[in-house]
């Protein structure tokens, strides 16, 4: 009898806890937040940019040291339906990368230690147009994936600089085009919606401006040089 009573108490307790944890209705914050046709916000975040190289000859890879960059921008959101939004997220991305060349690139020519390193600074005005595909809202959060295309203007490209690597200037193109893929979660808080996202960006066009010397150790062996990177952004709406 005692065992039966303990079993009944255990079953009742388990049922009660299970109901509270998994079936209890929670308070819904900002229940109508996503219903307006247009909404606005801003984001802050970090980035890590890299280069993807294709080479003309089989020499040692150019090593890219990635540095943490900073992102800031605005968001305009057009609601298409419950699960689909069109987003425009203009922003400013500031970053830098260091390129380390192997000595084999300078075979037969004299060089100094400074010739083996090139710093590539980038200040992008980033203009992405994205589609956001969301799941159904679950209490106060909603996962989603996002993808689209973007263009960027690099204010630090040195594209118009007449000096090249022979004078210590590594040059890149001003206008870039990317495709982007990512995911995130909307958290509906009491006063606003908070959204952390992770997004990858991948350049479509070659970014390199080549030196005047076709056999330049810095650019002669590079067939294409394309930016790729990862954004971690925190959005407030």
Automatic annotation (TrEMBL):
Protein name, as recorded: Porin family protein
InterPro entries per record: Beta-barrel_OMP_2
The species this protein was found in: Gilvirhabdus luticola
Record-annotated Outer membrane protein beta-barrel domain positions: 38-207
Superkingdom: Bacteria
Pfam families reported for this sequence: OMP_b-brl_2 (PF13568)
């Amino acid at each position: 009898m005692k065992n039966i009573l303990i079993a009944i108490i255990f079953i009742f307790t388990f049922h009660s806890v299970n109901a509270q944890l998994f079936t209890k209705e929670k308070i819904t914050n900002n229940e109508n937040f996503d219903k307006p046709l247009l909404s606005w916000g801003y984001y802050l975040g970090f980035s890590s940019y890299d280069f993807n190289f294709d080479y003309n000859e089989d020499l040692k890879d150019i090593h890219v040291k990635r540095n943490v960059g900073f992102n800031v921008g605005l968001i305009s959101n057009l609601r298409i339906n419950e699960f689909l939004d069109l987003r425009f997220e203009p922003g400013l991305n500031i970053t830098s990368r260091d390129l380390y060349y192997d000595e084999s690139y300078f075979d037969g020519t004299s060089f100094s230690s400074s010739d083996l390193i090139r710093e590539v600074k980038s200040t992008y005005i980033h203009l992405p147009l994205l589609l956001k595909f969301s799941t159904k809202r679950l209490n106060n959060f909603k996962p989603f994936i996002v993808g689209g295309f973007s263009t960027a203007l690099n204010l630090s490209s040195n594209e118009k600089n007449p000096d090249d690597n022979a004078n210590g200037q590594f040059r890149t193109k001003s206008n870039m085009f990317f495709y982007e893929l990512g995911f995130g979660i909307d958290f509906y808080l009491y006063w606003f919606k908070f959204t952390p996202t992770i997004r990858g960006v991948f350049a479509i066009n070659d970014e390199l401006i080549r030196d005047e010397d076709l056999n330049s150790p810095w650019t002669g062996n590079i067939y294409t040089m394309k930016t790729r990177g990862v954004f971690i952004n925190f959005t407030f709406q």
